[in-house]
C-alpha cells in the first residue's frame, strides 16, 4: 500500500494500531503534569509559496499554526523551537524578517536548528502548560458545537493567490478549555476537523452551514479549504461563541444547508 492509498489519516491510524505512536491525532502531546508540546512543519510549495507571502508573514504563520494547537488545549505558551532549512542563496535579511514575524506573536524562540536545503522548510515546536486539556474524545449527545470566529478567510485569500495571517485564539482557548467537552483547531477544513471529534468521541456531529459565520469575501466552498485556525468546541452549556451545530447519538458528520444535505471538501496530506 502506498501513502497515496492510505492517506494521512490512514497512516496515523496504522502507526497507532502497531503501537509505534500514541495520541498522534490530538492537537498536542501531554508530557508530564500540564506540560504540552506540539510541532508543525511548513514546506515551500506545499504549505506556502514565497511569491504569495512576505517573509514576515511567513514567520508569523509558522509560529501561529503551532500556537493554535496550544490554544486548542487551553495552554499558556512558554517557548518556541525553530528549525530552518533553506537554500544557500537565501538572503540573511529575509531570514531576519522571518524571525521578526515569529517574534510578533510574543512567544520567545529559545532554540532550534539550521540546515542547508534545496527548498525552504520551517519546523516549529511550541511548548506550554495547561490546567485542563479538553482533547477530542469527550463530546457527548446534546452538546452544542461552537466556533471562535468567522471562517473561510484562508480559502478566499488562496483564490486571490495570497495568504492571510492565522489568528491567535489563545485567550479564547483558555476560556473554552475550562468547560468544553472537546476542542480542536480548524486546520484541515470544517468537515474534516469535525469528523475528528465525531470519531474520537463516538458521536454524530451535525453542522448547520447557514449558521457558520463567514469572513469578508468568503464563500461557502471556502469552508473546505482549511487553514482558518479558529477553534471548534463541543460545549454543554451556553457560551459567548456562535453555535453552528450539535452533537447527537450516532457516528460521522452531517453537513446541512437550510435543512438539506451538503458536501464540503477538505485537506489530507498524501491524497
What does it look like?
The chain is an alpha+beta fold. 26% of the residues lie in helices and 26% in strands. The chain has 6 helices and 12 strands. It is globular, with a radius of gyration of 18 Å.
Question: What are its keywords?
Answer:
five-stranded mixed β-sheet, single chain, 271 residues, 6 helices, alpha+beta, seven-stranded mixed β-sheet
Structural class determined from secondary elements: alpha+beta
Helical amount among residues, as a percent range? 25-40%
| Number of H/I helices | 6
> What's the overall geometry?
globular
Total beta strand runs: 12
Biggest sheet statistics:
7 strands, mixed
Into which percentage range does the β-strand content fall? 25-35%
**How far from one another are the termini?**
13 Å
Give start-end ranges of low-pLDDT stretches: none
Would you list the SSEs in sequence order as H and E? HEEHEHEEEHHEHEEEEE
Describe the secondary structure blueprint for this structure:
Layout: H1 3-17, E1 29-30, E2 35-43, H2 55-71, E3 76-86, H3 92-103, E4 109-116, E5 121-129, E6 144-147, H4 153-159, H5 170-177, E7 182-185, H6 190-201, E8 204-208, E9 231-235, E10 243-248, E11 253-257, E12 260-261
Amino acid at each position: 500500500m502506498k501513502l497515496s492509498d492510505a492517506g494521512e489519516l490512514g497512516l496515523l491510524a496504522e502507526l497507532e494500531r502497531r503501537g509505534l505512536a500514541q495520541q498522534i491525532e490530538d492537537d498536542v502531546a501531554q508530557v508530564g503534569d500540564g506540560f504540552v508540546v506540539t510541532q508543525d512543519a511548513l514546506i515551500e510549495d506545499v504549505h506556502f509559496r514565497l511569491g504569495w507571502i512576505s517573509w514576515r508573514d511567513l514567520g508569523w504563520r509558522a509560529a501561529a499554526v503551532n500556537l493554535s494547537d496550544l490554544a486548542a488545549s487551553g495552554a499558556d505558551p512558554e517557548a518556541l523551537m525553530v528549525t530552518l532549512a533553506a537554500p544557500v542563496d537565501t538572503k540573511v535579511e529575509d531570514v531576519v524578517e522571518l524571525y521578526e514575524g515569529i517574534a510578533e506573536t510574543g512567544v520567545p524562540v529559545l532554540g532550534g536548528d539550521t540546515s542547508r536545503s534545496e527548498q525552504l522548510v520551517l519546523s516549529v515546536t511550541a511548548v506550554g502548560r495547561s490546567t485542563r486539556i479538553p482533547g477530542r474524545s469527550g463530546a457527548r449527545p446534546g452538546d452544542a458545537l461552537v466556533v471562535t470566529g468567522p471562517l473561510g478567510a484562508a480559502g478566499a485569500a488562496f483564490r486571490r493567490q495570497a495568504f492571510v495571517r492565522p489568528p491567535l485564539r489563545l485567550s479564547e482557548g483558555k476560556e473554552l478549555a475550562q468547560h468544553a467537552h472537546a476542542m480542536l483547531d480548524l486546520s484541515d477544513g470544517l468537515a474534516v476537523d469535525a469528523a475528528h471529534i465525531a470519531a474520537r468521541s463516538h458521536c454524530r456531529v451535525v453542522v448547520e452551514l447557514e449558521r457558520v459565520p463567514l469572513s469578508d469575501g468568503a464563500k461557502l466552498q471556502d469552508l473546505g479549504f482549511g487553514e482558518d485556525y479558529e477553534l471548534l468546541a463541543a460545549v454543554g452549556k451556553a457560551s459567548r461563541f456562535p453555535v453552528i451545530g450539535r452533537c447527537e447519538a450516532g457516528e460521522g458528520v452531517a453537513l446541512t444547508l437550510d435543512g438539506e444535505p451538503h458536501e464540503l471538501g477538505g485537506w489530507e496530506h498524501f491524497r
